[in-house]
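ok so dumb question maybe but i'm new to this and my supervisor (M.) told me to 'just get the structure for Spermine synthase' and walked off. so i did the thing. is this what she meant?? sequence i used:
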Amino acid sequence: MAVPAFSSVRPSKPDLAVFISGVTSMGLEMLAMRTLAPEFGNHIYTVGGILTVLLAALSLGYWQGGKRAAVATNRQMSWLMLATAAYVGVVVFASDILLMYTSTLALPARYASLPAVIILFGPPTYLLGFISPYAAELSKKEGTGEASGHVYALGTIGSIVGSGATTFVFIPALSIDGIGLLFGLMLVGTALVLVAPELPRRPTAASVFVALVLVVAAAGGPALFDIDHRGEVVYETQTPYQQLEVIDNGGERTMYLDGAQHSALDLDQPDRHVFTYTKYFHLPMLMSDDVEDVDRVLFIGGGGYTGPQDFADRYNATVDVVEIDPSVTDAAEEYFGLEDPEQSDDINVHATDGRQFLQRTDETYDVIVLDAYKKEQVPFHLTTVEFMELVSDRLADDGRFHANVISAPNGPAAEFYRAQYRTVQEAFPDAYSFRTSDSNAVQNIEIVATNDDTAFDESELEARNDARAETMGVDLGGAIDNRLDEPNTDDAPVLRDDRGEVDSLLDPMLGQRYVIEESADGGGGTETDTEPAEPAAAIAAGSDPGAKETLVGQDRAPIIDISPDIAPDTPAVRSAPAVAT
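this is what came out, is it supposed to look like this??
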């Protein structure tokens, strides 16, 4: 069999251009998801918006490039590469401020991310669309079909490389700006190869200039547009799952995941709690027949590990924690007082998905706490009836399940709560829910389900609380007062694996205020809740005492109001929803 000559298999300059455009276009798509997630979340509307805009921009580029391909040259492709690289420099330099301004546009929440996607990633993707038809025109292949198939194959291979490298190599190792710089320099290098070996003066000078712009943008953009004023950045990294930051502000240290606060620690007294909903995590212990009989507890979601550490300190129980992101666990160990899990006798850490862990473990738990979130969203596969049945199977016969749900207690924004409650009822004999705010705003609603028939009434819970408050170290009187009546779930769906309804149920919450009530005393002894939240009009004005507010689906600088009876230097531990598993 004849061996083809080396020259016949060596990639041509148009081949290289198509391959690099494939790498870059897919890499920019992956980068867009990481860039927009801290501001707009990573729900289906953000992801779908990115795919829609980028595919539209690429198609428009293909169309325009095809109309002009008859006069295509390598030098023209070189200029297209340089123009794309220059725009990537703009994205690196000014993405933060552009995200901030586009997020304030008066659009329905589900479409809020579209202007940012169009401005930041539409133009470079459009320019890259010209490359394939230009390369097909310049191809040495015989016939239109062969040339087109060759270009499609190279572009797709480039997209595979760009997707895989960005996902598995670049994002874990580099910052978003660093990845943008890498793609920009890759485009500049390709532009030079396209005009080599002559290296004409104008394209060469332009290449050097664009390379300098990229370097300056990556080095100076974050410093120039540091506008969130959250405090001193103690630690920052891009993990395979999210952007992780640890920030000190005064005496408090806060963990941010994709721009949302997840756990906070008072550096002077790390055993204090302030967010009301974290105290409610102890409701399953109150509903257990005997606290001393609770030997094994599972937390799905770790974050700063404030909840698991609290349980390990208060109870004579082994606490397993499923935290999918090892970098989050490392940060909790380094900055939030978590003991080295390999050396701890009380806390065991499992770096995997929560549902996969339950499917694979043979362990039986007395209490399972679900506190897994990506911003304000529960991962879909942790909401369905199939998951709830799995949880029930992994609980002891008298086990208790606690789910932290972000929703409104009633009204249009309560659709997810009512569906989640009905889904829990399908798998458990009894379920109870507790609001954490007297307002009707989106808030943390705690659902507790029992694996046996219980039918607790308020008087029984109060009696248990009176008897156990000192032993448990937590007074749950406020939680009992905030027990909700069983919601009307007649028109609520049962969430199932084969029906992706969670995003549509969360849709009414997007853009609404999310209120986290604060406790007046977050200490280890008995705790007293703040006064009830003000009506909705007061909340809108940011005057709700003892509450922290942000907007669901769109990250904003939070409004923090501490109740007047709390001294300014009152220490607190604050924990928001844990990282998604």
